[in-house]
């Protein structure tokens, strides 16, 4: 039964998203924000002009609905034309292109105009299939507008849509004069591996996804601590060659969402899931963790740790060891993360690193500045803390993208110092490989990225970074192999994996 303020409607849904937005922000924050504002104005104008209404413009996305299927498709076409005009004269790497998906389906609409439901989800997933600057339609929209709009349609076949029971047939919209996709050249949709493609088979070794631990502290601001513990556990078990570990980027898509373990395992292509919770109060913490079999949904191992904050690394090590025992993994002497990690003895310094990591990942000027303050504080508390120095190096690398003088050399100094403090720390080689690349020391950058894959063999970013650096070094032979490996470890991979695969540097 529907509530008075919620009713079902058949609507055409347009979902759009900027391609490569994070990269553009890293290159020019001010210019990118201005370009996004201009793009939003284009969408608003074309949506209203063709009988629709904009529902949401969160982040770099646009969601709009129309009573008319033809209105939605025409608005999408006209918006892409206008957006292409905005980009005229700009270097290609500074152009903001949008992907657009359009679907005709039922939605649940609230009295305030907000819409929910499968129709919205399908439009959003079709948007992911579209090329930058392109439009992808569902079969329902295609049937409704065929012969009514000045465009042709290229059949993309049936697509598996996450959380939608039946496959959706998709069509790429082509304007008159547009060239069809060249035979033998994969389209953006084909080289962008979907979750269903990734999870089609299990790896030949124990495979696991670590979900973000639930923050039980009663304070939303403590979320960084629960996230940090989850991520550090991922890092530690990703060091174990005998394990296959899904990337943080993919497992954190389930943060705050109710999902069955069996569904998560199927989506990510793993056998096991680790989930848990963290409650932090003063200098005490309670951490719970349980390992679950994705086939049966049964619990394999569970533990609760009531400890002082100073014991956090011992807790992480014990969780790692329990996973190893439960999955009957045989470790070599050099494969045990517990014996190789060098951590701080100051809980406050670790807390600063976790706060810095959270702020850095905002990828904004303000977040980068806040991250630097936290890393500086951690170093003040423990001058020998390699994690803090490596994290600080990444903040200076971020400044390099904003044109800050001296940023690259400072990043290099910090990365080298972090390496001298802990040569087994994966973050050292994440920072060092990027810094060396921008110093045009390609051979050394390749060596650093390769060392990262050796230390942390289940880190998707390590393989993606190595692939990108090999492109710049004029060694593209292994790029495809490395990107496919990165995609398998990170099913919800970022756009630049595909970009690295599709556009090798000459």
Automatic annotation (TrEMBL):
Superkingdom, natural source: Bacteria
SUPFAM superfamilies assigned to the protein according to its UniProt record, in alphabetical order: Nucleotide cyclase, TPR-like
Coiled-coil region: none
Xref: PROSITE patterns: GUANYLATE_CYCLASE_2
Gene3D superfamilies in alphabetical order: Nucleotide cyclase, Tetratricopeptide repeat domain, TolB, N-terminal domain
Domain Guanylate cyclase: 12-127
PANTHER family associated with the record: ADENYLATE CYCLASE, TERMINAL-DIFFERENTIATION SPECIFIC-RELATED (PTHR43081), PH-SENSITIVE ADENYLATE CYCLASE RV1264 (PTHR43081:SF19)
Name of this chain's protein: Adenylate/guanylate cyclase domain-containing protein
Annotated organism of origin: Variovorax ginsengisoli
Taxonomic classification: Bacteria, Pseudomonadati, Pseudomonadota, Betaproteobacteria, Burkholderiales
């Amino acid at each position: 039964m529907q509530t008075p303020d919620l009713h079902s409607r058949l609507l055409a849904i347009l979902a759009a998203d900027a391609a490569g937005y994070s990269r553009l922000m890293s290159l020019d924050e001010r210019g990118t924000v201005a370009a996004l504002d201009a793009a939003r104005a284009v969408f608003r104008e074309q949506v209203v002009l063709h009988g629709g209404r904009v529902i949401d413009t969160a982040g770099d996305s646009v969601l709009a609905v129309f009573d008319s299927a033809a209105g939605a498709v025409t608005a999408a076409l006209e918006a892409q034309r206008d957006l292409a005009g905005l980009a005229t004269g700009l270097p290609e790497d500074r152009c903001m292109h949008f992907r657009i998906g359009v679907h005709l389906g039922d939605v649940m609409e609230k009295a305030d105009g907000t819409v929910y439901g499968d129709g919205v989800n399908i439009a959003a997933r079709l948007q992911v299939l579209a090329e930058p600057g392109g439009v992808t339609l569902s079969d329902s929209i295609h049937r409704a507008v065929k012969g009514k709009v000045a465009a042709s349609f290229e059949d993309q076949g049936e697509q598996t849509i996450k959380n939608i029971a039946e496959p959706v047939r998709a069509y790429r919209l082509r304007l008159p004069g547009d060239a069809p996709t060249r035979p033998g050249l994969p389209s953006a949709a084909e080289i962008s591996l979907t979750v269903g493609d990734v999870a089609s088979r299990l790896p030949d070794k124990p495979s696991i996804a670590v979900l973000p631990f639930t923050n039980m502290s009663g304070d939303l601001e403590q979320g960084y601590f629960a996230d940090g513990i989850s991520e550090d556990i991922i890092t530690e078990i990703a060091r174990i060659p005998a394990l296959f570990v899904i990337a943080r980027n993919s497992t954190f898509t389930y943060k705050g969402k109710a999902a069955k373990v069996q569904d998560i395992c199927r989506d990510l292509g793993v056998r096991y899931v680790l989930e848990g919770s963290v409650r932090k109060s003063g200098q005490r913490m309670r951490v719970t963790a349980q390992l679950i079999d994705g086939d049966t949904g049964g619990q394999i191992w569970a533990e609760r740790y009531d400890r002082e904050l100073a014991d956090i690394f011992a807790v992480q090590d014990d969780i790692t060891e329990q996973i190893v025992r439960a999955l009957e993994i045989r470790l070599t002497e050099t494969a045990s993360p517990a014996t190789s990690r060098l951590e701080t003895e100051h809980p406050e310094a670790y807390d600063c690193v976790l706060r810095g990591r959270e702020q850095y990942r905002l990828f904004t000027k303000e977040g980068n500045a806040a991250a630097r303050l936290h890393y500086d504080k951690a170093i003040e508390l423990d001058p020998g803390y390699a994690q803090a120095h490596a994290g600080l190096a990444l903040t200076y690398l971020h400044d390099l993208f904003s044109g800050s003088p001296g940023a690259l050399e400072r990043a290099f100094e910090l990365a080298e110092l972090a390496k001298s403090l802990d040569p087994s720390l994966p973050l050292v080689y994440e920072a060092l490989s990027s810094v060396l690349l921008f110093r045009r020391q390609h051979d050394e950058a390749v060596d650093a990225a390769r060392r990262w894959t050796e230390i942390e063999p289940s880190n998707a970013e390590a393989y993606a970074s190595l692939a990108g650096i090999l492109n710049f070094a004029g060694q593209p032979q292994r790029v495809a192999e490395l990107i496919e490996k990165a995609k398998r470890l990170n099913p919800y991979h970022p756009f630049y994996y595909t970009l690295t695969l599709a556009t090798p540097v000459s």
